[in-house]
Amino acid sequence: MILKAADFFPSGCRARRHGDCGDLHKGFARVKCKDCNHEYLLPSPASWAMIEPLAVTLEAVLANRPEKGDRVLIIGGGVIGNLLVQTIRSLGSDCRITVSEPSKFHAELAARAGADDLITDGDLFGHAAEITGARRYRPMLGQEILMGGFTKVFDVVAKTGTLRAAMRVMAGGGVLSVVGIGDEVKLDLTPLWLKLFFYTSLRVRHCNPL
Fold it and tell me: 10, 81, 153, 208: which could form a disulfide with 77 (CB 3.0–4.6 Å)?
């Protein structure tokens, strides 16, 4: 039996939808077609391990790029969180970056990467008011929130607790980037209609008003 090259590739690849290789996308696909103009020769295998996390952070920052004067919060200071700091600084964004990370070791690495403020004791709400100069406000429904706060938030953890905290400390009209992949979450939507902010996710790849 003679097989053609097209027989090996799913319909998405044959239709030249690069990256859409059927039911299993991205790194989970058996095969994947790419434009040869987008391929690059790597200098050594030692650099391969950082490609995927760097691609994640670069896409997140370009989709929610901080500008001069922005107050940025990164929740989670592991590999992705640290690379978010490095990516923002590498792009020359003149903004103030705060990293919330319980591990002092990872927090110190974030500071070396360019973070201005570190929160390691878990009191994100209290420190956020001090760092941003925001005013604390208790609505008729839900928990206490900040009026003012961070203009751009990157949540690398994406759990119920961190997403709730992000919504409470975000400034009105700000943008929340959900970079992590969490499990099922339950949210208090009070900050949503009070602040009218936006969220963006690497999975939906665009910004949606909630």
Answer: 81
**What is the pTM for the complete model shown?**
0.73
∠ at Cα 81 (203, 59), nearest 5°?
40
Q: Which one is predicted more confidently, 160 or 153? A: 153
CB count in 10 Å sphere of residue 66: 21
CB 100 within 8 A of CB 85: no
Instruction: Break the chain into its structural domains and give their ranges.
Output: 9-39, 49-209
Give the span between the Cα atoms of 74 and 84, in whole angstroms. Answer: 8
- Architecture per CATH, domain 49-209, reads as 3-Layer(aba) Sandwich (3.40)
115: alpha, beta or left, given left = phi > 0 and alpha = psi -120 to 50?
beta
Mean pLDDT along residues 48-56: 84
